[in-house]
């Protein structure tokens, strides 16, 4: 059934309705456990679910697989995102034919971002310069078979410098043949309400569903605002800032704000909301319960069902583990079995500078010393970003700041790190997390690039310290070394709280390490692409990427807080 027909039915009923959005997890285990989660959430009665599409078709196969399961196995009308950036006509046709074969009739047509191995956004053969071109192509080639949706931007597209022109682009997309609209997320209901009024005043009558993303964690919220520049009411920003070290308080605020926002939208006559789940369940469930939406199903399906789920590798996951994935959403260092693993790229969604901006901030590196000095300037706060990091360092790294500067100048280019902690109060403003009244612990770890000439001696030191150190190392060519036991992970962080079992939200294992390896090395080539192909800078950066190693070191003796730094000489 076409989503446009389901939306019309929902609007005619005069009742509030909702939809969900998921993304393809980065690991097979995460995908297996997402199926378990979608099956439960489908019982809540979403009008449709949507599945995102990786830049340049990077997740094409997994997106189609996930869409097919939602449509065919779980019986939920499914919308497949489809971007045209760096996609030629053959790739677009393959995606659309795959959707047809899977019984999927609903497409959200987007321009999208470039894939990580592309220098810039580019149009491909067939004139796919913008989403409107994709809408026109689908209509010309497939007629009315597909129900086509487009994105709306209440605050204007982030790349737009002219709000009125941006709105005209949106109108053109609808007039090209769109059947429905899903808006970009907003945290200010008034922004959406005023934009929707403008849409209707322009004579657009297709359904418009408001995008809503409950705040799941302070860091993910902070990063999203930094990257999208979405407007945030000052009251919400202030309250989140006050609660940032209390994970549960942040979640509670996120649910409270989402509920209040949806109620404000409903009062203004907006019945439909599109909930971006980030593949997480509990906060979305709480929002729907508070609104009285999906209530009939929530008693039987809202929270994790008793028992254990089977991963694609045969590993079992308990209800408690699945609940923890929501309590402590993971990004780079979460549990690779979680459906939410990979919700944000480890090293930034994309390089955010043009060539001139990159050279201005990061210079024109031609030697290893140039790279060492750049990383040192970042960890000392002289510059606010690196090609691998689009934000300044967090406050917790201040206690190891001097050591970070030292090791970077020695040629160990750090991408991630944390100090050892031994029973810090969970309420601590800098290092605390989880429920109040508890204590948190963490092992020191460092992830860094090591130039090929230094790697051999560094590996020898790691091997001689193997009784207390766990390491993972890989290069761009795919070679992999570790002293970790096969199939086992190494805990990085854990917490002890009143009335709860020990909580272990972050860990490192072979799967999670290798899941990000290609992305880490690809960023070197993205950086190189900021310079002329045959320039000294571009050649040096490509050569460095080919020769260096990515190494993760965990010091398991958290009682010896500074011992890890003796390895970096």
Written account of the structure:
There is one protein chain. Residues 115-122, 296-320 and 344-350 have low confidence and may be disordered. The protein is 41% helix and 17% strand. The chain has helices at 3-12, 28-42, 60-73, 89-101, 131-142, 163-175, 189-201, 218-228, 234-243, 247-267, 282-291, 295-301, 319-327, 355-362, 368-379, 401-409, 452-464, 510-528, 536-547; strands at residues 17-22, 49-51, 78-83, 106-110, 147-152, 180-183, 208-212, 272-276, 308-310, 316-318, 412-418, 421-425, 439-442, 444-450, 469-475, 480-482, 490-496, 503-508, 549-555. The strands form 4 sheets. The chain has an 8-stranded parallel beta barrel with strand order 1-2-3-4-5-6-7-8, surrounded by 6 helices. Strands 11-14-19-15-16 form a 5-stranded antiparallel β-sheet. Strands 12-13-17-18 form a 4-stranded antiparallel β-sheet. Helix 3 links the parallel strand 2 (49-51) and strand 3. The protein is globular. With 569 residues, the chain is α/β, with parallel strands linked by helices. The protein is built from 19 helices and 19 strands. The N and C termini lie far apart (63 Å).
């Amino acid at each position: 059934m076409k989503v446009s027909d389901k939306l019309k039915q929902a609007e005619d009923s005069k009742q509030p309705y909702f939809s969900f959005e998921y993304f393809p997890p980065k690991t097979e285990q995460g995908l297996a456990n997402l199926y378990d989660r979608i099956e439960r959430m489908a019982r809540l009665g979403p009008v449709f679910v949507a599945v995102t599409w990786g830049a340049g078709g990077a997740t094409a196969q997994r997106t189609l697989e996930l869409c097919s399961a939602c449509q065919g196995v779980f019986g939920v009308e499914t919308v497949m995102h489809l971007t045209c950036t760096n996609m030629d006509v053959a790739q677009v046709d393959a995606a659309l034919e795959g959707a047809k074969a899977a019984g999927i009739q609903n497409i959200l047509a987007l321009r999208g971002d470039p894939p990580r191995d592309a220098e810039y956004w580019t149009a491909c053969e067939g004139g796919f310069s913008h989403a409107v071109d994709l809408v026109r192509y689908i209509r010309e080639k497939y007629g009315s078979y597909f129900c086509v949706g487009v994105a709306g931007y209440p605050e204007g597209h982030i790349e737009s410098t002219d709000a009125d022109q941006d709105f005209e682009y949106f109108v053109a997309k609808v007039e090209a043949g769109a059947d429905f609209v899903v808006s970009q997320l907003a945290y200010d209901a008034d922004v959406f309400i005023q934009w929707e009024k403008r849409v209707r005043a322009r004579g657009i009558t297709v359904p418009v569903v408001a995008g809503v993303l409950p705040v799941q964690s302070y860091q993910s919220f902070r990063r999203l605002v930094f990257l999208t520049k979405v407007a945030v009411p000052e009251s919400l920003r202030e309250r989140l800032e006050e609660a940032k070290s209390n994970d549960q308080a942040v979640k509670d605020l996120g649910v409270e704000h989402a509920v209040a926002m949806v109620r404000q939208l409903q009062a203004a006559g907006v019945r439909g909301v599109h909930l971006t789940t980030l593949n997480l369940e509990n906060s979305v469930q709480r929002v729907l319960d508070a609104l009285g939406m999906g209530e009939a199903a929530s008693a039987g399906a809202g929270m994790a069902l008793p028992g254990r789920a089977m991963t694609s590798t045969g590993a079992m996951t308990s209800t408690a583990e699945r609940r923890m994935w929501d309590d402590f959403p993971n990004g780079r260092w979460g549990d690779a079995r979680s459906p939410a693993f990979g919700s944000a790229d480890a090293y930034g969604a994309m390089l955010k500078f043009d060539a001139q901006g990159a050279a201005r901030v990061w210079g024109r590196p031609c030697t290893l010393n140039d790279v060492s000095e750049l990383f040192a300037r970042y960890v000392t706060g002289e510059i606010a970003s690196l090609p691998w990091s689009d934000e300044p360092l967090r406050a917790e790294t201040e206690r190891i700041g001097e050591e970070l500067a030292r090791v970077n100048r020695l040629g160990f280019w750090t991408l991630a790190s944390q100090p050892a902690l031994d029973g810090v109060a969970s309420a601590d403003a800098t290092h605390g997390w989880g429920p109040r009244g508890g204590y948190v612990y963490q092992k020191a770890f460092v992830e860094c690039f090591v130039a090929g000439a230094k790697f051999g001696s560094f590996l020898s030191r790691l091997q001689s310290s193997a009784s207390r150190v766990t390491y993972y190392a890989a290069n761009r060519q795919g070679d992999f070394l570790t002293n970790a036991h096969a199939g086992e992970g190494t805990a990085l962080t854990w917490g002890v709280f009143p009335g709860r079992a020990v909580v272990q939200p972050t860990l490192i294992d072979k799967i999670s390490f290798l899941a990000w390896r290609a992305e880490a090395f690809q960023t070197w080539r993205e950086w190189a692409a900021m310079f002329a192909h045959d320039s000294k800078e571009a050649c040096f950066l490509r050569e460095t990427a080919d020769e260096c190693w990515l190494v993760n070191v965990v010091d398991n003796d958290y009682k010896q807080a500074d011992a890890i730094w003796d390895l970096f000489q």
